[in-house]
Amino acid sequence: SVSLVFALGGLCVLGIMYFSVSVQLSAQKTIHLNLILTTLYLKALTLNCTTNFHGKLYFFSSNVLNWSSSRAFCVSKGADLVTITSQTEQDFLASEIEEQHWIGLTDLKTEGHWVWVNNQTLTDTGVQSWYKRASGQSEPDNWRGTDPSGEHCAVVRYFEGHVHWFDVSCKLQKKFICEKKY
């Protein structure tokens, strides 16, 4: 009977120890989760991201820069100009803007070969939304009226009831959209 009391006492001590360790592990998990969330929040603050959508944070600038400076700004914040990878994403972006914004699409390296800043081609993403004029002349048109070197950078804008891309001179000052995955 004495050994039974010791056995029961031992079981009680083990139960208390198990409960204590469980509480400590739970507290550690909570601390770890809070640390992860705080880190993500601080990363978002670094970019001043205002909107998130499907695992990406977006920053919609209120100031204007040329395409290269816009990209440099995004990169300095750990992001890049937006790469549009679906019609859903494009519709979301269009709902957030009222005027032209730079996107991460360019043919600066090879005229007519449009590539996203992450090196994906339009074929890779499967998304294209170039503006098509009723006259038949469509974007991208590399028009040289504003800039003799042509138009090698893309903007997204809501125009004539739809979301379209336009190629414009990279030297123009436009608002821009940065994108950061989290």
Automatic annotation (TrEMBL):
Subcellular location, record wording: Cell membrane
Pfam families in the cross-refs: Lectin_C
UniProt domain C-type lectin: residue ranges: 49-179
Keyword Disulfide bond tagged: yes
Topological type in the membrane: Single-pass type II membrane protein
Main localisation: membrane
Keywords recorded for this protein, A-Z: Disulfide bond, Lectin
Keyword Membrane found: no
Highest taxon in the source lineage: Eukaryota
GO cellular component, one term: plasma membrane
Alphabetized InterPro entries for the sequence: C-type_lectin-like, C-type_lectin-like/link_sf, C-type_lectin/matrix_domain, C-type_lectin_CS, CD209-like_CTLD, CTDL_fold
GO MF annotations in UniProt: carbohydrate binding
The protein's name: Si:ch211-133n4.7
Organism whose genome encodes this protein: Cyprinus carpio carpio
